[in-house]
Specification:
This protein has a domain at 42-149 and 184-200 and 218-264: Rossmann fold (3-Layer(aba) Sandwich), CATH 3.40.50. Helix 2 links the parallel strand 1 and strand 2 (76-80). The chain is α/β, with parallel strands linked by helices. The strands form two sheets. Strands 2-1-3-4-12-11-10-7-8 form a nine-stranded mixed sheet. The chain has six helices and twelve strands.
């Protein structure tokens, strides 16, 4: 009995000594104290019916391709070939428009867009979405617009970009480049505030350019304003090309547009930079899509 008690006492002393030498357990911060992640960007794509020749102005194809592209990068995407309803826009952070002559708005659609922008919704206008009957009105939303029916474009010509703000988040990593597309001139610009130019292009010498050939015109810009005093600021990003649909997959254009959508939605510019792993293990490896850009 005395031997058993002695051994038990020695074991207690040894265990106490070992525990005293162990480092204190790491304290794990409560989940609530950890930095919250930004919610997914909610995007509504307004497209239109196909117009022009094969490979040009392919609005329905954009709706299909970019719905998948944005979803694969963590966005929540909805879209249609009509102007979104108030209910559809109520759950969107940014409205992306790739549709000809989007400046033609009914009274109801104009009121819906006003309400969306007054709460700080973002806009991304692509190619001839900024064309309509009243360019002053659409310019108040996106900073610049062009009048329908006027000859104010080059066509099937080189568009040589000069990046004028290389420090802007949308233009990170973008260098001067040239694509064959359509460029616009003779624009109606907002004056208060003015646009923030990201890149310009020299108008090519085409029959439609006429005396405007050689002019330097903004082709990519941002625009920030509030429609009401004290209201959240709306953000707009405009890219005037997209006549030739293949240019949406250009290795400089696609990442630039993804950053523009993120920026307009008031997220970090690289919020859509990484393609998420898909169920079944397959990630897209198409041009401009593989992993990170």
């Amino acid at each position: 009995m005395k031997v058993r008690l002695t051994l038990l006492g020695a074991a207690v002393v040894l265990c106490t000594s070992v525990m005293a030498q162990q480092p204190p357990p790491q304290q794990t911060a409560p989940a609530a104290a950890q930095a919250p992640q930004a919610p997914p960007l909610r995007v509504f794509i307004q497209a239109g019916l196909k117009t022009h020749a094969e490979g040009q102005h392919d609005y329905p194809q954009f709706l299909a391709d970019w719905s998948k592209l944005l979803t694969n990068r963590g966005a929540i995407v909805d879209g249609a070939l009509h102007f979104p309803s108030a209910r559809e826009l109520a759950s969107a952070d940014v409205l992306v428009i790739y549709k000809g002559d989007a400046g033609y708005l009914s009274m109801e659609d104009r009121a819906t867009l006003d309400n969306f922008l007054r709460r700080g919704g973002g806009l991304v206008s692509l190619h001839d979405a900024l064309c309509g009957p009243a360019p002053e009105e659409f310019a108040s939303f996106v900073g610049g617009a062009k009048k329908h029916g006027e000859v104010n474009y080059t066509l099937e010509a080189d568009v040589p970009y000069t990046v004028v703000d290389k420090t802007h988040p949308i233009m990170q990593g973008v260098t001067d480049f040239t694509i064959k597309d359509e460029a616009f001139f003779n624009m109606t610009w907002s004056k208060t505030p003015e646009i923030h130019v990201l890149a310009t292009a020299v108008m090519a010498k085409t029959p439609s350019a006429g005396t405007h050939a050689g002019e330097v015109v903004p082709q990519i810009w941002t625009y920030e304003t509030s429609l009401l005093p004290g209201a959240p600021a709306l953000r707009a990003c405009v890219w005037m090309q997209g006549h030739n649909y293949a240019n949406f997959s250009d290795p400089q254009v696609q990442p630039m547009l993804l950053r523009g959508i993120s920026w307009a939605g008031k997220r970090p510019a690289d919020a859509l930079a990484t393609e998420r792993a898909q169920r079944g293990g397959g990630g897209g490896r198409g041009r401009g899509r593989g992993g990170q850009f």
